[in-house]
């Protein structure tokens, strides 16, 4: 599929205008408002990454078309497509980290901290499936998005590892640092699996999301699911949305 330009049949009389040609020209930003265009480019790239069937095929031309500017206008803000995508990834990781930190900021004990962080993670992933796929879908080629671009994701995992280890303190047998890391990694794997399957297979008669979160954390903390459920923060009527989600 050619995603860079529209095509017309040769020899066809009165060729139709492309959607780009039909759209009204974009007004130039006033002098000194280049940051406005930068924000628009970032928003457009984030939208396309979260909605394209094949986000790995994103091009600068598509981003420019979404905003209504010439592709050359992008280079005054981002040197290439990779830099733009990495900027989007950083913003999305910051958003998710902020929500998890806010959810746990008033936690009175480690277990509540863990429950709040994990619930915020799952709810954001379910409420923002396109953005979640952008971060954790793993479809971007390495030459476009290097592994270092996901460094903030490692920080999220570290927060879960630390929280789970703190919630496990007081047990008769204290796990080693390596065992704590593995336990946190397995918990994150379970959280990711829950979000991914919930988003991709909505036709399954899933139990309520709160029940799934409680059961999952019960397995990883050896606490009763009812105890976990009682600690889950409430976000209103829609279980798939966390506060301040974008």
TrEMBL record:
<dbReference type="InterPro" id="IPR009057">
    <property type="entry name" value="Homeodomain-like_sf"/>
</dbReference>
<dbReference type="InterPro" id="IPR001647">
    <property type="entry name" value="HTH_TetR"/>
</dbReference>
<dbReference type="Pfam" id="PF00440">
    <property type="entry name" value="TetR_N"/>
</dbReference>
<keyword id="KW-0238">DNA-binding</keyword>
<keyword id="KW-0805">Transcription regulation</keyword>
<dbReference type="InterPro" id="IPR025996">
    <property type="entry name" value="MT1864/Rv1816-like_C"/>
</dbReference>
<feature type="DNA-binding region" description="H-T-H motif">
    <location>
        <begin position="59"/>
        <end position="78"/>
    </location>
</feature>
<protein>
    <submittedName>
        <fullName>TetR/AcrR family transcriptional regulator</fullName>
    </submittedName>
</protein>
<dbReference type="Pfam" id="PF13305">
    <property type="entry name" value="TetR_C_33"/>
</dbReference>
<feature type="region of interest" description="Disordered">
    <location>
        <begin position="8"/>
        <end position="35"/>
    </location>
</feature>
<dbReference type="InterPro" id="IPR050109">
    <property type="entry name" value="HTH-type_TetR-like_transc_reg"/>
</dbReference>
<feature type="domain" description="HTH tetR-type">
    <location>
        <begin position="35"/>
        <end position="96"/>
    </location>
</feature>
<dbReference type="InterPro" id="IPR036271">
    <property type="entry name" value="Tet_transcr_reg_TetR-rel_C_sf"/>
</dbReference>
<keyword id="KW-0804">Transcription</keyword>
């Amino acid at each position: 599929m050619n995603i860079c330009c529209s095509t017309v049949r040769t020899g066809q009389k009165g060729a139709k205008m492309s959607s780009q040609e039909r759209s009204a020209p974009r007004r130039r930003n006033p002098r000194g408002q280049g940051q406005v265009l930068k924000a628009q480019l970032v928003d457009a790239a984030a939208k396309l990454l979260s909605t394209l069937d094949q986000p790995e095929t994103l091009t600068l031309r598509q981003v420019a078309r979404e905003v209504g500017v010439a592709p050359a206008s992008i280079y005054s803000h981002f040197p290439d497509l990779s830099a733009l995508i990495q900027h989007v990834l950083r913003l999305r990781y910051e958003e998710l980290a902020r929500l998890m930190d806010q959810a746990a900021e008033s936690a009175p004990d480690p277990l509540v901290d863990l429950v709040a962080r994990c619930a915020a993670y799952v709810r954001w992933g379910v409420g923002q499936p396109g953005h979640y796929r952008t971060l954790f879908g793993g479809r971007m080629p390495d030459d476009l998005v290097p592994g270092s671009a996901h460094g903030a994701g490692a920080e999220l995992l570290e927060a879960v590892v630390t929280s789970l280890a703190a919630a496990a303190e007081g047990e008769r047998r204290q796990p080693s640092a390596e065992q704590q890391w593995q336990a946190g990694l397995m918990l994150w794997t379970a959280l990711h699996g829950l979000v991914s399957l919930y988003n991709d297979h909505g036709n399954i008669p899933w139990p309520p999301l709160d029940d799934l979160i409680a059961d999952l954390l019960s397995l990883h903390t050896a606490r009763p699911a009812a105890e976990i459920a009682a600690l889950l923060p409430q976000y209103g009527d829609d279980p798939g949305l966390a506060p301040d989600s974008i």
